[in-house]
Design a protein that fits this description.
By secondary structure, the protein is mainly beta. It is built from 2 helices and 27 strands. The longest helix has 12 residues.
Length: 280
C-alpha cells in the first residue's frame, strides 16, 4: 500500500483514524507506512506542534522526554512563535527539556483535562523540567508541573529555569513539589528582564520562586504550603545585580514557613497582597 495522507478537510475512515472534527481541531496529517500501519502525525500548518506527533504518550507510564525534546527541536524550524501543544494527561520525563526563544508552550484549555509534566523516578537530582538561559519571548500557558508527595524526586528536582529571561509571559501555570519551582536569575549573557506571570500557583516546594532581575511582575499568584514562598532580590550571588521593579499584585500567601524573603531588591512592590500564616 502506497503512503497516503488525509488532509484536515477530508473524511477519514477505519479504526484508529481521526474524525473530521479531530482533524479540524488538531490539524494533523496521518502518515502511513507501506504496510498500512500508522507512522506519525505531522503538521498541516505551522506554527502548531503536538508532542504526540513525535511519539509522546502522556499516559503517566511512558518516558516522553525524547519525544517532547524532538517536538521542541522541530518547532525551532517553524515560523517565530511556534506553539508546542501538550494534551491532557501526564507527560513523564527522565531528563530536562531544553527550550528556545520565540516559542509558546500550551496545555489543554480549562474543562478539557489537565496537561501535566512530571519527572520519572530516574531524573537526576537537581535537574530542571524546563531548562533555558538568556531566552527571549517565551510563553507558557495552561501547564501543570508536578511532583507529588511520596515520589522519589519530591522536592529534589527543580521546575523551570528561566535565567536571563527577556519578555517572558506565563499564564495559568501550576507548580508543585519542587526544590525550586520557578527560578529567575541572571543568565550567562543578560539579566532577567521583563517578565509577566499571571495566575501562577506555587505549592509544596522548598522554595516557590527565586526572583532576581528587573521589571518582573506577578499578577494574582497563589503561593502556599512552601518552606519559603519567594526569595526576592540577589540572594545567591555576590554583588548587586539590577534587582528593581519587582511587583506582586493581588498575591495570596498562605501557610508558608516564610512567605517572602526580600534580600537586595530595590523597588520591590507588594500591592493588595494577602498573607495568612506567612511572614514577609
Amino acid at each position: 500500500m502506497a503512503d497516503q495522507r488525509y488532509l484536515y478537510t477530508e473524511n477519514a475512515c477505519g479504526a484508529g483514524h481521526p474524525t473530521v472534527a479531530d482533524n479540524i481541531n488538531r490539524l494533523p496529517l496521518v502518515e502511513h507506512n507501506n504496510d498500512g500501519t500508522h507512522n506519525k502525525l505531522t503538521q498541516v500548518k505551522d506554527p502548531y506542534v503536538d508532542v504526540r506527533a513525535f511519539g509522546a504518550k502522556c499516559d503517566g507510564v511512558t518516558d516522553d522526554a525524547a519525544a517532547i525534546q524532538a517536538a521542541v527541536d522541530y518547532a525551532v524550524g517553524l515560523s517565530p512563535n511556534a506553539v508546542v501543544f501538550f494534551p491532557p494527561g501526564n507527560c513523564l520525563i527522565s531528563a530536562g527539556i531544553t527550550i528556545y526563544s520565540d516559542m509558546r508552550f500550551m496545555g489543554a484549555a480549562s474543562g478539557n483535562g489537565i496537561s501535566i509534566i512530571s519527572p520519572t523516578t530516574g531524573m537526576a537530582t537537581g535537574e530542571y523540567l524546563f531548562k533555558s538561559d538568556s531566552l527571549s519571548r517565551v510563553y507558557i500557558d495552561n501547564l501543570s508541573f508536578r511532583v507529588l508527595s511520596g515520589h522519589a524526586k519530591y522536592q529534589l528536582v527543580h521546575g523551570i529555569k528561566a535565567w536571563g529571561l527577556n519578555r517572558w509571559q506565563m499564564r495559568n501555570v501550576y507548580m508543585n513539589g519542587f526544590n525550586i519551582a520557578m527560578d529567575i536569575r541572571k543568565g550567562a549573557t543578560q539579566e532577567a528582564n521583563n517578565g509577566l506571570f499571571d495566575g501562577l500557583i506555587l505549592q509544596y516546594s522548598k522554595t516557590g520562586a527565586v526572583v532576581t532581575g528587573q521589571d518582573i511582575r506577578f499578577v494574582h499568584p497563589t503561593i502556599e504550603q512552601n518552606k519559603i514562598g519567594m526569595l526576592i532580590g540577589d540572594i545567591y550571588s555576590s554583588g548587586d545585580s539590577h534587582n528593581k521593579s519587582i511587583t506582586l499584585e493581588g498575591a495570596h500567601f498562605e501557610t508558608n514557613s516564610i512567605g517572602a524573603w526580600i534580600g537586595k531588591g530595590r523597588g520591590v512592590s507588594l500591592r493588595d497582597t494577602y498573607a495568612y500564616y506567612s511572614n514577609i
